[in-house]
């Protein structure tokens, strides 16, 4: 909640209040030390970085460094930069009318210096909230020096009858206007080398050059850059002298386990209250969503250097819930539960978030998405049930033989429609007699709300282990014995 701005309106009032001006990097440092000493979380809502990225970021802030966050897409780099705003003082004073947030005690611009000389202690003061002290620019090849730093304004020069060398004719770019603020440049390698060179002196000495005129402004800016290491070779690079001027380079990473990944997905997914209230999502379904991302990050079909963003799991979760909601509405039900068969609906959420390797291009995006779901199912299956032996002794009956025999004995394929209402869905799975004993034996403590999802996982797991086959038919899936078609043909 934003508090009321201070009522101080002139420089003399500001002096009497005892206000002590400080640089933005001192603000960040002091407020971070205060937060840590009070036991507050400095970057609330960022999961998985507690022991890695966040301590490094805190050390960089305490060292008053400019920062480069280096990592693959979807690793919360921009989120971290934006959250640094919370470490700023809530309000700071500036000279009213200043384009560059002039400090009343040390104005930089001609406007600020002139007004202070004219008005002295009566100089009018306004207050800037920390939420307005964040500037962000996406680096693209068309960004110019004029955009970032500024340019000479010929109309202003003509109107004021001033030479171009006079600083009053400068039209300031984004960086000068971000004085006393946090300035973020995303995807730094995409910025042309000559533009990067223009940042050298700003980071180190505070000089800017516009059309050959060198001006010393000593801007007070906290720079944060973000970059993807893949961009270094695909599109550009960070020039070495610029890297040398960035105090800390911090490597980000993807979640290291399913628990952390799931926290991120549940926090970031955009579900409305109706979906949250009426659609139950089994814990196993969430586990499977996250496992798909982990499988993708090690898949031979995907260019892993490009990265698999957390957005894949978030979008998949949203699609999964929407699939269940659509079925619920069509069946005129009030509530429903996500099923494993609903995972066929998340393919569109997967295909747009994967950069294919050569092998993946040959398979096709949809096929690769199906393979990832299958690989995730197999991983979870082996976590909850005995592993299927590749070779079995003659006459040996494995733990799943009764279930496989049940499918062999069926005259018709077992079809599980996506459109079945909840009662019909449960009845259909209950008709497979060997399923329940297997769950009672290997997962006796499974919650009732997870029971039917686990039964589906058992069927899909046997498909991935080549003991059953699954075919898309109409509005659902058909399950049968792997060898039944071959035997019928014989």
Question: What profile does the largest beta sheet have?
Answer: 5 strands, parallel
H/I helix tally = 24
The percent range for helix content is 40-55%
Q: Could you give me the name of the CATH homologous superfamily of the largest domain?
A: P-loop containing nucleotide triphosphate hydrolases
What would you call the structural class? alpha/beta
Mean pLDDT: 89
- Percent of residues in β-strands: 5-15%
* CATH level-two architecture of the largest domain: 3-Layer(aba) Sandwich
**How far apart are the first and last residues' alpha carbons, in Å?**
75 Å
What is the class of the largest domain in the CATH system? Answer: Alpha Beta
> How many structural units, i.e. domains?
3
Poorly predicted runs: none
What general outline do the C-alpha atoms trace? elongated
User: What name does the CATH topology of the largest domain carry?
Assistant: Rossmann fold
Radius of gyration: 30 Å
Strand arrangement, largest sheet? Answer: 4-7-10-1-11
Count of distinct strands: 16
Topology:
Elements: H1 11-16, H2 24-37, H3 53-62, E1 67-70, H4 77-83, E2 91-95, H5 110-119, E3 125-129, E4 134-138, H6 145-148, E5 150-152, H7 154-160, E6 170-172, H8 174-177, E7 182-186, H9 193-198, H10 200-204, E8 207-210, E9 213-216, E10 222-227, H11 231-234, H12 240-245, E11 248-251, H13 258-268, H14 273-278, E12 279-280, H15 283-296, H16 310-330, E13 336-337, H17 347-351, H18 358-363, H19 365-384, H20 401-409, E14 414-417, H21 422-430, H22 435-442, H23 451-464, E15 468-473, E16 476-481, H24 484-489
Parallel strand pairs: 1-10, 1-11, 4-7, 7-10, 12-13
Antiparallel strand pairs: 2-3, 5-6, 8-9, 14-16, 15-16
Helix pairs in contact: 13-15, 13-16, 15-16, 15-19, 19-23
